Amino acid sequence: MSTPSRRSSAAASDPDRSLSVLFTPKLVTVLREGYGLRELRADAVAGLTVAVVALPLSMAIAIASGVSPDRGLYAAIVGGFIVSLIGGSRFQIGGPAGAFIVLVAATVAEHGVDGMLLATMMAGGILMVMGLLRLGSYIQFIPYPVTVGFTAGIAVIIFASQIKDLLGLSLHAPEPGPLFAKIPVLWHSLPTVTPAAVAVAVGTIAVIVGVKRLRPGWPNLLIAVVLAAVATAVADLPVATIGSHFGGIPQGLPLPGLPEVGWDKAAAVLPNAVAFALLGAIESLLSAVVADGMTGRRHRSNCELMAQGTANIGAALFGGLCVTGAIARTATNIRAGAHGPVAGMIHALALLVFVLVAAPLAAFIPLAALAGVLTIIAWNMVEKEAAWTLLRASRGDAAVLLVTFLLTIFRDLTEAIVVGFALGALLFIHRMSRAVSVEAHVPLVGEDRPDGHPAERTPYRPREGTDPSIMVYRISGAFFFGAVATVSSVLDRIAAAHRVLVLDFSAVPFIDSSAANTIHGLARKAQRNGVAVYLAGASPGVRRDLLTHGVRQPLVHWSPSVEEALARLHAEGDRTTEG
Fold first, then answer.
1. Does the residue 11 lie in any domain?
2. Whole-angstrom distance, CA of residue 63 vs CA of residue 324
3. Per the domain annotation, does 554 fall within a domain?
4. Are residues 105 and 252 in the same domain?
5. 264: buried, middle or exposed (CB in 10 Å: 19+, 13-18, 0-12)?
6. What is the pLDDT of residues 334-375, one digit of tens each?
7. Is 41 in the same domain as 99?
8. DSSP 3-state assignment of 442?
9. Higher-pLDDT residue of 437, 155
10. Residue 119 shares a structural domain with residue 187
11. Percent of residues, the chain, with pLDDT higher than 70
12. How far is CA 540 from CA 4, 506, 509, 544, in A?
């Protein structure tokens, strides 16, 4: 019978098997388990429930991103279907997300709609490459304060982008993207407030909050938008609608086509594509992790990245926005009783039916109502309890959170994530370096044992007395570049009276090249001073890394433990004395 380690080694040596497991869509897994009418019924109910939520949200996100509402629906239909068809998460719902509003709006303003579509396609390619390189598991290394910070920053920007429609303002100049430039323009336009638009926005928000509180299972977003549209049409309110502003929504999907492609254009939008891919990977895998936490399942991160990449390419071919995993819609899907990915596919098909049959009705939806929807979304995006906890937890976490938050608002989302990640990593390295210790033992004693143990605090000496010429240092903790200075400051002070230095590595889980180079330099210095160096208790991995960097005999001597090293030294001393 093979052991688990042998089985894992066999799996690792079989790349085809490994790839087939890593990139098998969850739909295939669900169908293999057995799929019948009961499961289809559960997925149909969940899919229709999510479609009701996604319908107004997709249009609102598109409008806030600076494009027509139909592009949000195309992303939800095409991208959402692909994510569920070939994705690595059983319950993931794909579509346009509020987190992308800032990036998409900036890309549209700078490069036009064609530039946005090209950046979306390029982001899809980047996501697929990330999946093929199996980088999905590395997304989990984004520090929690960074995700809380940039999510809160995006929420502030989304709300600021909706002030115009919330108040029904007639701007005297084009609305700038940056917050600092936007505020003066909005301020000077305050005299043009439309009371009817304010009433529609406030009423929409009130209905959303009220329905959620009184009837949590009802589709509060759709109810609020429908009531706002009916009130606007019946009372003939003087507010902007999808029909008056965009001319309505086309009744059907467009034919797929490529945006304007060229080397210069591709180079210009490459930074935007990288930002789309980075945020898409973070959002989709965070959503998958949330789904895992709610259901006890496990997603396949690299398969999910491949699906997200394919979905973005597919959505862009039909003129849609960026696609990612939507946390709120995924959670709604789970709560509605979804069994598997078929629910997400039904959600996309339901939206397609709406576009084919009822698209003209969308023309009556007031923009103020969609602004109210996004105001609620922005409020919900802010993880208020988590932010307050992080601000109180430590100065380091508070600094990472605030820096990421402020950079997201006043600079750039990609820059905020990179700087926040770098700052979080530096703080972690600092904490880890302080956890490393170097202890000198003279006379040497063993590890603490349980009370009453016969060998409690057994001396590290096979005979009476302790040889003062033998010095033992024990290194505890991860020995890496952040701890090199701490360890070196102790080990460099090798007394001339010591003829032997024993380094106990039994409490070192791993080392890096900087640490190995430090030990190599120490051993060479000791050799010049006539001091013998023994390395004891090193694990196979630590020993391999040290050998790779030239820490080998006769420069040093290896021993399984400190006790055996000392026994060997005393035996050699006895032979010398007898000789």
1. no
2. 17
3. yes
4. yes
5. exposed
6. 988 899 999 999 999 999 999 999 888 888 999 999 999 889
7. yes
8. coil
9. 155
10. yes
11. 89
12. 19, 11, 10, 6
Three-state DSSP at 395 gives helix
pLDDT at 126: 96
Q: 282: which 2 tokens?
A: 């973070």
What are residue 343's DSSP bridge partners?
A: none
> Do 220 and 299 belong together in one domain?
yes
Are 383 and 532 part of one and the same domain? no
Helix (H), strand (E) at residue 348? helix 342-357
- pLDDT higher than threshold 90 for residue 118: yes
List the one residue out of 472, 443, 497 whose CA is nearest residue 562.
472
CATH of the domain at 485: 3.30.750.24
1: in domain: no
406 and 442 in a single domain? The answer is no
Total domains present in the chain = 2
Backbone angles phi, psi at 372, to 5 degrees: -65, -40
Q: What's the pTM?
A: 0.75
Average pLDDT over residues 288-296: 85
The Cα-based distances of 480 to 17, 502, 516 in angstroms read 35, 20, 9
φ, ψ at 181 (rounded to 5°) = -80, -25
| Average predicted confidence (pLDDT) for the chain | 84
Q: Are residues 410 and 484 in the same domain?
A: no
Residue 532, classed as helix, strand or coil, is strand
Residue pLDDT, tens place only, 29-81: 999 999 999 999 999 999 998 998 888 889 989 998 889 999 999 999 999 99
Which pLDDT score is estimated for 427?
86
Domain span holding position 486 = 437-446+459-578
Query: Does 17 fall in a domain?
Result: no
In terms of domains, do 347 and 389 share one? yes
